[in-house]
Amino acid sequence: MSSSNIKAFKSGIWYIVANFLTAASSFLITPVFTRLLTREQYGVYNNFTSWQSIFAILCTFNVTASLICARYDYKDNLDQYIFSAIGMSAASVLIWTLFLNLFSGWSQNFFSLSMIYLNLMMAHIFFMRVFEMFQAQQRYFFKYRLQIILSVLSTLLSFGLSLLLVTHMKNKLSGRIIGSILPDIAIGFCIFLIFWARGKRIRFGYWKYTLKICLPYIPHLLSMTVLNSTDRIMITKICGAADNALYSLAYTCGSMVTILLTSINSAFSPWLAERLHENDIKSVHSFSKYYIISFVCIAVGVMLVAPEVLYILGGKPYFAAIYVMPPVAMGCICQFLYTMMVNIEQIKGKTIGMAFASMAAAVLNYALNLLLIPRFGYIAAAYTTLAGYLLLLGLHMWLVWRIRMSHAYSYRFIVGTVIAAGTVTVGINAIYNISIIRYILIAAYVIALAVILYLKRDIILKFVKMFKSKEQVEI
User: Fold this and answer.
1) What is the pTM of this model?
2) Which of 120, 250, 316, 400 is the most exposed place for a label (fewest CB within 10 A)?
3) What are the residue ranges spanned by the domains of the chain?
4) Which one, of 227, 206, 187, lies nearest residue 357 by Cα?
5) Distance CA 292, CA 31 (A)
């Protein structure tokens, strides 16, 4: 492996580790704040973060995505390009902020948030995008140390300040929101000054270039964000913040496996690209089965221990949400499977269908939420999200078939996996009230997993090898 590849690999590994630890930290601090905040306050906080994820795309156009091309097209003037792209985000955020304040009565009623929280959200969105632009710039040039230090620092400061403010402020919700966003705003502001000093002035001609790259991705990104966030927003509107707290915590617990999904896919997708480039379909077809089984086993394990996880993170007040976790974990399995399809679409440059698939899933999710949440309560939202992910999986399988790449995976195996996992989900959901049976199944699961890991140790070693080299992996 050349020195440049070693540097890229080392940077990538550190980025994955930092990303994993940052994401995992949310689970470690959750038990603290579920006990310090009331259910209503915890629900409003999750409503705040849900709207923030949507506005982050609407207001800033996801300008960070343009840097992957701009670093080559504007390599001699990259600092000015970055500052110009940030300037475009700033203008958009300012316009949105003025609109929200101009129609403050409507805004507060529609978003179920006070104006102070909406204004704080806008400030956080802009400076967080500046922070992300810096991280992307560092990552593309394989400079991982500073971005990791700042990411970890932001996480620690956010937790520490939130804890301090929640325990000392009369309005604990304000303490949680201010504490979670202030470190990012401070770090982003410092980085903004650095970009300003380097870029010096905004060139409006760069905005057309940025929009040309970023706008096509917005429908896809926005639809996926809506699919992931609309449940909590609609539960808050229909059922109230307390029910949103129950759903949000259970959703957080059940989707723990998505952290693993993101980390593993960052290694799987380059390997997949290499194999497809060499037309080595046989290795992809064979390896993908073990890849799928491994992830499904992890998701099933999360379902089995869901009551314990929920009790640790939330305590007795949140235990009523236990039945949200199985469909959420099943949704993560579908998400994992369609991500494998998306990898092929991206590698082959066939990404137009992605936006339509995401929009269709978001519309289905919204319609089902509107129909089912008023009738069945917040638990229905978990099943509507699962329905959205199932639709996404089906559409992406069809898109891959259309570009004549369906032979890369075994469609029969994937469909069988979904049916089997769905059956297991229903079974586990039915035994949550029968502890003795669940404990027996957990013991059997652990023993079976240990035996499989021992018998398939050679395959596991080859899987690890995939992370470390570009050599062909045959299974």
Assistant:
1) 0.80
2) 316
3) 30-222, 239-468
4) 227
5) 31
